[in-house]
Amino acid sequence: MTRSNTPISRRTFMQAAGLMVASLTAAGCAPAASPVPAAPAAGGAIPAGVTGGPLEVGVFYEEGAWFEITKALGDQLEADVPGTKIKYTFNNTASDAARALRWEAADPLDVDVGRWNNQAPQTYSYVDNDLLVDLTPYLEETLPSGEAWQDIYLPIVKSFAVDQRADSDSGGKWFGVPNELVLMLIHYNQTAFDEMGLKPAETWPEFLELCAAINEKGAATGMKPICVSGPTDVYVGQWWDRMIQRMVGKDAVLDVIYGDAHLRDNPGFLLAAKELEKIPANDWLMEGYEGADFTAAQALFFQGKAAMIHMGSWLLSEMADVVPDDFVMGTFDFPTVPEGEGDQGTMFGTAHIWSVPNPSISKSHEVNVPLAVEYLKRFTGREHTAERAQTIGAISPCTNVAPPPRLPGIDKLLAKAAEAELIIYYYGIHWDAALWASWYPYVQALWLKKVTAEEMITQMDEALDQYRAQKTG
To answer: Which residues pair with 422 in a beta bridge?
Structure first.
């Protein structure tokens, strides 16, 4: 999911710009040929106990292809279950604070995202305070396909959906289900790469050489190596997160983010900052990145203004309305750092986990749990997620669903993710606004050439100390 620091909406930009332009097992994965229905087919039999009524569900987008497919599913549920009326509420990152207030005010959405993620400590209170329905009994039930509901999902998503905390009283339970698997990847313009005779980089030194080559070869057409959004701090922050994992390792990073360690105490952090500093210093960023918000930046990537962009695999689904029909996307993982101390095979990503509130905590309305569960069976099942993969490029969290056709080679990256550790993107920082403010703006300043690598490290340490003092005080 994306975060915007500017008031311009996606709709406003599109209007102003005129629409600018795999069965996975515990051991690995491969695309499957024929999806198997996982939820009741449209117009199929409704499980006993499911009755109609109002249902408020979250949506990442309120228009465009993603929303249209989601609403079509909701329309079918309304037709299948008499009396059902679905309300769609925006629940992407920009609404996190407002939705958290709604939950605190006992007015939760009936189906919401981001309330629980096993890899995000900030969400643990939702489970520990019994705010969510334990979906395990439902996931153990048999679907019309003959499988248990829980068995349709790729093993990799369980590290996000299932409570796997060592000291948890609710270990092994599902407090949400996934509708999409996300991998943070470098997306690139395959056609441009082919025309320039270039290939993806495997190591960081090779990546720097690749950027230099694109900068030279793309000069005639105005194509720069890298697309980012200057006003959106996390766009450059992603590069920092990936680089420091490669350079110092996950544990060293978590000791700084969630512990008491300092960046200055480990020289690897400064080395990482200095490597990233080379990108703006060499003028490898797309023209106008300093003022392009995230939607504009992504649209400019698809217009050929930059050859590469580091983004979640949601990129195609988010920008489906403006992706040219002949655009050929390629993807590769963040390059390895030969001198780095981190696990060089580690990947970043998540599964978007959708949950249902415990009816006892809602004072604004009665939560229709059976209806919400029926919605989730459809929303996260093979039939719907296979359609999303085919039409908008979203990666299904289910087994026996072919990968998105517009992401060639994604099956190999999925296999890699299954075998390596998959770390939650942003290290879960996006659930904590104060921690976010102590981390990403300083990386943003580096990429905007406002601070040096040394200054960035110093300022981040100072901000983190203030954050810790506020948290403990």
So the answer is: 347
